[in-house]
Amino acid sequence: MRRALAALDVPDAGLLIGRQGTIGGFGLLGLAMMTSRTLGEAMLAGITHHKICGCLLDLNFEAVSEREAALVAWPQFGDTELLPFFCEELFASCLMIARELVGPELRPLRVELTYPEPRYAHEYAQLFDCEIRFGMPQNRLLIDAQWLARPLPGFNPLTARQALALCAQQRTPDGGEPHQEIVAAVERLLRCQLRQQPRLYDVARGLNLSERSLRRKLAESGRIFREIHDRVRAERALQLLQAGSLSVAEIGSEVGFSDPREFRRAFKRWTGMAPQDARQPAG
């Protein structure tokens, strides 16, 4: 990360990158947030599973007072040089996603940061449109607590529950840190090839590994190929069902099924519900 920022030589890179944040960029976690009941539930889902998206800060959400609630972030590595970038990217993307969920009128009460004021501090004020304080005890983004009860238009309890269950599967079996890089690499290849029903051999070849080596590496991560493949297919199917533009048969084809009946049976096995229930709006 340090080398990348040096090569970019863009002082406010964190703000620029965070400003581009969309809920779709969070993949399955974004789907879980979008289908939550309220903004508060969506934020809780994001905080609970933030590490599967590669966040390099530890997060918490706390009530500051009856009126104020705060997203609190602190570094995992004690790297003060990179802390501004991490905080800028996190708080900016969180603001963009929250506004995508409940509307552009959401405005923080205050942003507090532990590091000294940078020379581009005016960019903070322009983006967050609120009071900015540097040299504070904690890194916090504070909002009016009333926003937490704001209902979300995409609420779907079945989809939210299953998306969260799939998010939980992306953590290690003991509930610790996110999966190893080999698992992430397998997932990336699978997402690009779902229609072709890739086998272990195909993915191993794409990673320049033998089948035996890939199977061993996955076992060391506590994973098996079929479980990863099924989870990626379920993830994609849930996203397409929620989007609502394709038929069940077309979605089955997108995730590698030529027979819609086989897809329906598999989806029920993965998620415990029928495909049509995943796209049924909450009533």
Structure description:
The protein starts with a helix and ends with a helix. It is of the alpha+beta class. Strand 3, helix 6 and strand 4 form a beta-alpha-beta unit. The protein has a 5-stranded mixed beta sheet. Helix 8 packs across helix 11, helix 9 crosses helix 10 and helix 11 packs antiparallel against helix 12. About 2% of the residues have low confidence.
Order of helices and strands: HHHHEEHEHEEHHHHHHHH
Mean pLDDT: 89
- The number of strands is 5
**Low-confidence parts:** 174-178
The secondary structure category is alpha+beta
Number of alpha- plus pi-helical segments? 14
Major sheet description: 5 strands, mixed
- Residue share in helix: 40-55%
- In percent, how much strand structure appears in the residues? 5-15%
Radius of gyration: 20 Å
SSE arrangement:
Layout: H1 2-8, H2 13-19, H3 27-34, H4 39-48, E1 57-63, E2 68-75, H5 83-102, E3 110-112, H6 121-128, E4 131-133, E5 139-144, H7 157-169, H8 181-193, H9 200-206, H10 211-220, H11 225-243, H12 248-254, H13 260-271, H14 275-279
Helix pairs in contact: 2-5, 3-4, 3-7, 7-11, 8-11, 9-10, 11-12, 12-13
